[in-house]
Amino acid sequence: MRALRLHKPYEFHIHDEPIPQPQPGWAQIQIKSVGVCASDVHWYKDGRIGNTVMSDPIILGHEASGVITALGEGVDSLKVGDRVAIEPAKPCMRCEFCLSGHPNVCPGAPFFGTPPTDGCFCDYIVWPAELAIKIPDSVSFDAAAMIEPLAVGDYAVELSQIVPGDTVAIFGAGAIGLSTLQAAKLAGASKIIISDPIQARREMALKIGATEAIEPSEVRNAVNATTSARGIDIAFECSGSEEAVCECCEIARILGKVMILGIPDGDTYPFAASASRRKQLSAIFVRRSNLNTERCIEYVAEGKMDVKPYASHHFTLEQTKEAMELAITRGDGLIRAIIAVNE
Ligand SMILES: [Zn+2]
Ligand SMILES: [Zn+2]
After folding, report:
1. Nearest bound ligand to the CA of residue 238
2. How many Å lie between the centroid of ligand 1 and the Cα of residue 287?
3. Which residue of 129, 135, 203, 318 is surrounded by the most CB atoms within 10 Å?
4. Ligand of minimum distance to the alpha carbon of 103
5. How many A from CA of 99 to the centre of ligand 2?
6. Which of 106, 192, 162, 107 is nearest to 284 (CA)?
7. Ligand 1 centre distance from Cα of residue 7 (Å)
């Protein structure tokens, strides 16, 4: 099978590797669509995320969908031919965090495309069957691949303990920001101000329910106008911009909340210390998604959320480098680049 490995920053090679075979309890999945996440782009250009550094050539890609092609012994929840969305993390389900309902922070849980765990830019993977989640026929493979970023935004909104009527500001209208927007809307947010420097993303945000979609530099004025200078109830940082974290602290109301989802280039954040302290803000750093994938599949199947428009650009596995370059420049109105590994 084809396996695309990142050998060092900016350098992919396609390898011919044996098709992996499922052990008992596992499934073999032929990969269909894989989204190019900002985290994949960090690996591609920097060879690291924060203090985690790649050493051996690695297969990236974790926002994936596929078809079951073989099953290990003892799997009766799936059958060959089932179409699935894939949970990219494999928590231990035994540690104190897993047992207390937070498998998303299981220390050292393997995660696709994060050293040393290979990801989905390849023809086949094997993975525990319970982490391959059946999708209805009405959900496309592209949409199924976008369930992962949708679940991240949905989880952040859940963690924020939003209540109907809350006002929300979101920095970044990529797949995570748009997912946060949809989840906030479903949760009853009264006003949602979203910002992004890219016009196509702002237009998309308006289409799927933003009250206002503006340039990042206009957020402070917009929040003041919308809230009569009271400040926003919940600010979500989904852009990876370090300054946006600072802005979130500035625009949040007294006793407001700042939710941080973006992955910054560097490994430190500047933030507005006095504004945050005087307002007694709560900040929560959000890690991935948590036990909400099935709920998100239902939202999409029922038409309550729409992830189809995220898949704005398509590439073959061999064109992944081009997809990465486009993701770096965020050119051409890109929302998510999709690698169509198998049609
Ligand atoms: Zn991702
Ligand atoms: Zn665990």
Report:
1. 1
2. 11
3. 129
4. 2
5. 7
6. 162
7. 20
Domains with residue ranges and CATH for the chain: 2-146+307-340 (3.90.180.10), 152-285 (3.40.50.720)
Q: How far is the CA of 98 from the centre of ligand 2 (A)?
A: 4
How many angstroms is it from 105 CA to the middle of ligand 2? 7
Report the C-alpha gap between 191 and 188 in whole angstroms. Answer: 9
HEC string of the chain? Answer: CEEEEEEECCEEEEEECCCCCCCCCEEEEEEEEEECCHHHHHHHHHCEECCEECCCCECCCCEEEEEEEEECCCCCCCCCCCEEEECCECCCCCCHHHHCCCHHHCCCCCECCECCECCCCECEEEEEHHHEEECCCCCCHHHHHCHHHHHHHHHHHHHCCCCCCCEEEEECCCHHHHHHHHHHHHCCCCEEEEECCCHHHHHHHHHCCCCEEECHHHHHHHHHHHHCCCCEEEEEECCCCHHHHHHHHHHEEEEEEEEECCCCCCCCCCCCHHHHHHCCCEEEECCCCCCCHHHHHHHHHCCCCCCHHHEEEEECHHHHHHHHHHHHHCCCCCCEEEEECCC
CA distance 144 to 148: 8
From first to last of its 343 residues, the chain has per-residue pLDDT tens of 999 999 999 999 999 999 999 999 999 999 999 999 999 999 999 999 888 899 999 999 999 999 999 999 999 999 999 999 999 999 999 999 999 999 999 998 999 999 999 999 999 999 999 999 999 999 999 999 999 999 999 999 999 999 999 999 999 999 999 999 999 999 999 999 999 999 999 999 999 999 999 999 999 999 999 999 999 999 999 999 999 999 999 999 999 999 999 988 888 898 889 999 999 999 999 999 999 999 999 999 999 999 999 999 999 999 999 999 999 999 999 999 999 999 8
**Distance from residue 88's CA to the centre of ligand 1 (Å):** 9
Query: Ligand 2 center to residue 108 CA distance, Å?
Result: 8
